Amino acid sequence: DTRSSTLGNDTIYALSSGSGRAGIAVVRVSGPGCLDVYRGLCPTKAPPKPRYAGVRTLFEPGFAHVPDANIVDSDSLILYFPGPRTVTGEDVLELHVHGGSATVKAVLSAIAKCSSPAKIRYAEPGEFTRRAFLNGRLDLAQVESLGDTLAAETEQQRRAAVRGNSGVLGKTYEVWREQLLLARGEIEALIDFSEDQHFDESPAELLTNVKAMVEQILHSIQLHKLGSQRSELLRHGVRIALLGPPNVGKSSLMNQIVGREASIVSSEAGTTRDVVEASLDIRGYLCSFADTAGIRTKSVSNPDETPASTIGAIEEEGIRRARRKALDSDVVIVLASVEPTKGGGHRISYDTETLQLAAGAQQCLVAVNKSDVVSPETLERLIQDFKSSALESTPGLSGKEPLTISCKAAASPPTPGLVDPGGVHGLTEKLVESFSHLTSLPGDMQHLLGVTERQVQLLSETEKHLQDFLTAAQTGGPDGEADVVLAAEHLRLAAAQLAAITGRGESGDVEEVLGVIFEKFCVGK
Ligand code: GDP
Ligand code: ZN
């Protein structure tokens, strides 16, 4: 077996619990030397019963007889799991020791001093998981989702990653692969023995059935790709662009959302004319928020504004970027605001182009800021005007209900009994709603959130070969038999791509795939 030859017989160990101050640290040992390690640390007591915890004092190897000296840790909890039904598929020893970094260091160096016929060494990053894969405890799709689980920083990332852990995806790809290989075998038998007439189904029937099966798999591949697209949004974050003319309150709104509704993951400062980006966690969704330079075109509905011709080059560059931002965002928030007019009245300042950009986005919200500057009655009238003039005339936005907000009210000290002054909280709720629309999948397809980018690439390859199969299997060609040979070959190629997803089957480059997947892992996993 090529797999066990790549295993090596080393016994590996590492700190498996998280870093930082904690009460307990877990050191994991895996390999044939586990009991040697145990005996090195605890020579006076028998190991605990398999899978039961035992309390032990750990000694410096070779010094257990010296009273009180050289105790490495006391009251450690020890668990011994004999292979092969363990996390790695090998013998595993778990030492739950006191959490201080000095204790951990002493335990690790004591393990290194234990003697065993099997080499004992510190684990490489991801080596425990690699062994689990090589011993058939996990398939590659599960290994990947484990990597995602460990990397998850937001609640929604965690949920997407956990979907892939179950092994359902890997099993699905295995079923497809077996179906394809079986069909290929049948087609080849048909090519070789079709004169014999001993077939249950006619060659035409067989091809028709295989084609139907291939169509079914092609349809499922589409769903799997959709699942990956959705979880991509969870993994890499939903991109939100905040658009509107200058001074409507974009920066104020962003500050309100960041300040009260989200926690910043990272942020990038920029000038007022540039796009300012921040990575946020809004209710468990990772988002990147871009506050753009105000879009100000000739169509700005403000007669008092500077004419477009005086817009400076720097500002134009900012506007160009804002436009691009809008185009590659998942959610666009268009902001308008209530502004005084020269005549002593009020109007809503908005930008027509911004509205058009928003209408083209997958999800969009329209909000009118500075609701505090007019009476509720005036606000109501202005909003009705805004709806019938601006929104009705923009395709895709007619019927849209704008939210009214006041960043100023939201920023003022809280008044007892007043819920959500300024309405920024409500706007955030709407945002979260749009995130859940963007990332939703039917209930019975939640596991498809576990489909990774690597898997999508292989699924696309599979798809190509299956399309080629369908082309080759088309009847009526001048050279019918050669087409069937080609069709069978495409089934084989498609099956090989599926094998690469789970790392099972005859795919050749398992080691290469392992390298790519495991480089993301940390030591101890
Ligand atoms: P931006 O250019 O769109 O980013 O707008 P800013 O956030 O820089 O705000 C422009 C001006 O409007 C600033 O003077 C803000 O203090 C003011 N402003 C923002 N939000 C409100 C609000 O809700 N009510 C009032 N009255 N003023 C606001
Ligand atoms: Zn701004």
From TrEMBL:
Domain GTP-binding protein TrmE N-terminal: 11-137
GO BP terms, alphabetized: tRNA methylation; tRNA wobble uridine modification
Organism: Canariomyces notabilis
Protein name, UniProt field: P-loop containing nucleoside triphosphate hydrolase protein
Subcellular location, principal: mitochondrion
Location relative to the cell: Mitochondrion
G domain span: 239-370
GO molecular function: GTP binding; GTPase activity
Membrane-crossing segments per the record: none
Family as reported in the entry's similarity comment: Belongs to the TRAFAC class TrmE-Era-EngA-EngB-Septin-like GTPase superfamily. TrmE GTPase family.
Domain of life: Eukaryota
Keyword Iron-sulfur assigned: no
GO CC annotation, single: mitochondrion
Keyword Repeat carried by entry: no
Keywords in alphabetical order: GTP-binding, Hydrolase, Nucleotide-binding, tRNA processing
Domain MnmE helical: 140-522
A Pfam family this chain is assigned to: MMR_HSR1
PANTHER family xrefs: TRNA MODIFICATION GTPASE GTPBP3, TRNA MODIFICATION GTPASE GTPBP3, MITOCHONDRIAL
